[in-house]
Design brief:
By secondary structure, the chain is mainly α. Helices cover 28% and strands 4% of the residues. The chain is built from 11 helices and 4 strands. The strands form 2 sheets. The protein has a two-stranded antiparallel ribbon. Strands 3-4 form a two-stranded antiparallel ribbon. Helix 1 (50-60) packs antiparallel against helix 4 (153-163), helix 7 (203-215) crosses helix 10 and helix 9 (282-290) packs across helix 10 (310-320). The longest helix is centred in the middle third of the chain and has 13 residues, at 203-215.
């Protein structure tokens, strides 16, 4: 039995004063489990349609967004790994250049109000500008992307279906990408089925869930398993890759070494972990947190030792694996679009 709230959206796009024409489109609905909070994304400003979603999907997988047509969004955000990357600690971009941070998983973005590890972007519709223009990622200018898309018969058709005419603009590009990424919702893990009373945890998973609620849930809040704050989680600064976190955005000393609290959904497959990808396994992550509790400069959630035994760590990993949503990881709706 599915418990859902539907956010119904208009079947017509009518934007006055921006040159868009009215067009009949197919509405999409974001299905939300009944025990979940209301999304933070403003759907009224960017109504979801099948045509907009498919345009965004094509753009997401197309290296045309990069300077030399070699790097796509998917290059760092693979579906089977929760739209994150797994083959190196930090992202790799154009010309083999190495980035400075681990690419974050793109999961349940509709509930995010800030994006990037340091919260440097606060609107999903402008977030793609960062990787597109970053010299270590796609290293392209938006005007060049628009020019390339305008020369493409394929994209003239897709933009026309989504917006009523063939005009390609940066605003339409960004809205379409947002329509795809905002639909990347993961809501059907074993944890969710347990919450819906469709199944039960094993003994190990139940013990792990109890440990999680006592030690981890204050930051990684259910049911999204993420937080809307930035925190210092006790990681020592990597001297080879000095990253001081949110202070770069705010300039506030208290934000030094604070990073966004990411979602733990599909955490089994979104390794490596942390902003710099320093940990390869969940066991390493848990051992790190288990070593804390003696540094009073850390947030109160981490100022007491966890004192987990080896068996506790095994149980906690068992629970974290119940956050895996294979339906999401292999949903063909989110995969590379076939012509």
């Amino acid at each position: 039995m599915k418990w859902y709230l539907k956010y119904s959206l208009t079947t017509y796009i009518v934007v006055i004063g921006l040159g868009f024409t009215s067009q009949f489109t197919t509405p999409l609905y974001l299905e939300i489990p009944s025990f979940w909070p209301k999304p933070k994304y403003d759907f009224k400003s960017n109504p979801l349609t099948e045509e907009g979603f498919q345009l965004g999907r094509n753009l997401f997988y197309d290296p045309i967004l990069s300077r030399d047509n070699t790097i796509s969004c998917q290059s760092c955000h693979l579906q089977q790994t929760g739209f994150s990357h797994v083959d190196h600690q930090v992202s790799h971009g154009i010309d083999g250049k190495i980035g400075t941070r681990n690419a974050m998983a793109l999961i349940n973005l509709a509930w995010n109000k800030d994006f990037m590890w340091d919260g440097g972007v606060n609107n999903l519709e402008v977030q793609p500008i960062n990787p597109i223009t970053n010299p270590l990622e796609m290293d392209e200018k938006l005007e060049n992307v628009i020019a390339k898309l305008q020369r493409s018969d394929k994209y003239k058709m897709l933009f026309s279906k989504a917006f009523g005419d063939e005009k390609v603009t940066s605003q339409r590009l960004l809205k379409a990408l947002a329509q795809f990424t905002v639909m990347l919702t993961s809501t059907n893990s074993k944890y969710d089925k347990v919450m819906h009373k469709e199944t039960t945890f094993t003994e190990m998973e139940q013990k792990g869930y109890k440990l999680f609620r006592f030690n981890c849930a204050s930051c990684h809040k259910e049911p999204l398993f993420m937080g809307d704050k930035f925190e210092n989680n006790g990681l020592k600064i990597d001297a080879t890759l000095p990253d001081y976190g949110r202070i770069k955005i705010t300039g506030k000393l208290e934000d030094k070494q604070r990073f966004k609290i990411p979602t733990l959904r599909n955490i089994q497959f979104t390794f490596p972990y942390m902003h710099d990808g320093r940990f390869k396994t969940l066991t390493e992550v848990i051992k790190h947190y288990n070593s804390l509790g003696h540094d009073k400069t850390l947030p109160k959630e981490l100022d007491k030792p966890m004192n987990l035994s080896d068996n506790d760590r095994v149980d906690l990993v068992a629970f974290l694996q119940t956050l895996t949503d294979k339906e999401f990881l292999f949903d063909k709706r989110y995969s590379f679009p076939k012509e």
